[in-house]
Design brief:
alpha/beta, Rossmann fold, five-stranded parallel beta sheet, 5 helices, 17% strand, binds flavin mononucleotide
């Protein structure tokens, strides 16, 4: 089975988890990249506004074509306001290319359900598995049990 792990990460936590997920199931990895990224106050304000209005900001062309994969695992930061804007753009643009999907959320507030619900709605299909990880559970720490359940649900190891 061909698997793609695609993720968006600003501070590196979702990226760490994505690399571990990809390593465990032998998947290709791709990062969602904002076209206008930045860590300035203005960039942060802009992302906050994009979250509030559910915007679809421009992203860079992905390196991998999700259509070529049997399963696309989408990794997103946990947020209280739903899916991070760059993830929303990616999923909205490529949802017709997805066969099977699964989601994971890294280290956010206890509102990941909102992220999973919005991803499900935009994808137009239910995830075959979901997985959330808190900071203390990020690699190389004790994330392994939850991640093993996720892998078992997907039958990819
Ligand atoms: C666009 C975006 C929105 C976020 N919103 C929240 C939030 O509403 N509440 C919160 O506690 N953390 C929020 N976070 C922080 C992430 O949950 C946290 O940084 C987590 O480690 C995963 O993000 P990372 O992959 O960028 O490290 C947000 C992060 C991003 C990138």
């Amino acid at each position: 089975m061909k698997i793609l792990v695609v993720y968006f990460s600003r501070n590196g936590h979702t990226a760490r988890m994505a690399k571990e997920v990809a390593r465990r199931c032998g998947a290709d990895l791709d990062a969602i990249q904002e076209r206008d990224s930045g860590a300035t106050g203005w960039a942060r304000w802009r992302v906050g506004w994009q979250m509030l209005v559910r915007a679809n900001p421009p992203i860079l062309q992905p390196r991998r074509n999700p259509r070529r994969y049997d399963l696309v695992i989408i990794g997103a930061p946990g947020t209280r306001l739903g899916v991070a804007p760059a993830v929303r753009t990616y999923v909205s643009q490529y949802r017709d290319c997805f066969n099977r999907v699964a989601f994971f959320c890294a280290e956010g507030p206890d509102a990941d359900e909102r992220v999973f619900a919005e991803l499900t709605r935009i994808c137009g299909k239910s995830p075959e598995a979901i997985f959330r990880v808190r900071r203390k559970g990020l690699p190389p720490a004790a994330h392994k049990d939850g991640l093993t359940d996720f892998m078992n649900d997907l039958r990819v190891e």
